[in-house]
Design goal:
Strand content: 5-15%
Number of strands: 3
Number of helices: 5
Radius of gyration: 15 Å
Distance between the termini: 29 Å
Low-confidence stretches: none
CATH architecture: Orthogonal Bundle
CATH class: Mainly Alpha
CATH topology: Arc Repressor Mutant, subunit A
Mean pLDDT: 86
Helix content: 40-55%
Order of helices and strands: HHEHHEEH
Number of domains: 1
Strand order of the largest sheet: 1-3-2
Structural class: alpha+beta
């Protein structure tokens, strides 16, 4: 596959470990927003370094925005899905529906609404 192919480039950043789970955790937050500490708590096995890296990459790709509140200590960072990020959740939901329909060894999902599902 050509290195400049849109599919190739998109798959490279979306398939990095934790990326899709971070997007889904943001989606579940009020206003599709979560603080860094909330994301870290909900993704218990992720390291702070990896979470920071993935959030920065997703911000650079326009999937989320970051707001920093430096008026208090410690400084608080909030991350919110953009319109692009919200559309990506629809793509993830479509992949989930495909997997539930076609994957033979899949465990049936008890929650079809990704807003409350951990995928």
């Amino acid at each position: 596959m050509d290195e400049a192919c849109t599919v190739n480039l998109t798959v490279k950043y979306l398939t990095k470990k934790w990326t899709l789970l971070i997007i889904l955790e943001l989606y579940k937050g009020p206003g599709h927003t979560r603080r860094f500490s909330e994301l870290k708590d909900s993704l218990s096995d992720i390291t702070q370094k990896i979470l920071s890296e993935r959030l920065k990459e997703l911000e650079e790709e326009g999937i989320l925005t970051r707001r920093v509140d430096a008026t208090s200590f410690p400084v608080k960072s909030e991350y919110t899905l953009t319109k692009s990020g919200l559309e990506l959740v629809d793509v993830i939901r479509g992949i989930k529906m495909w997997a539930l329909k076609w994957k033979i060894d899949n465990i049936p999902c008890g929650c079809q609404d990704c807003k409350v599902c951990v995928l």
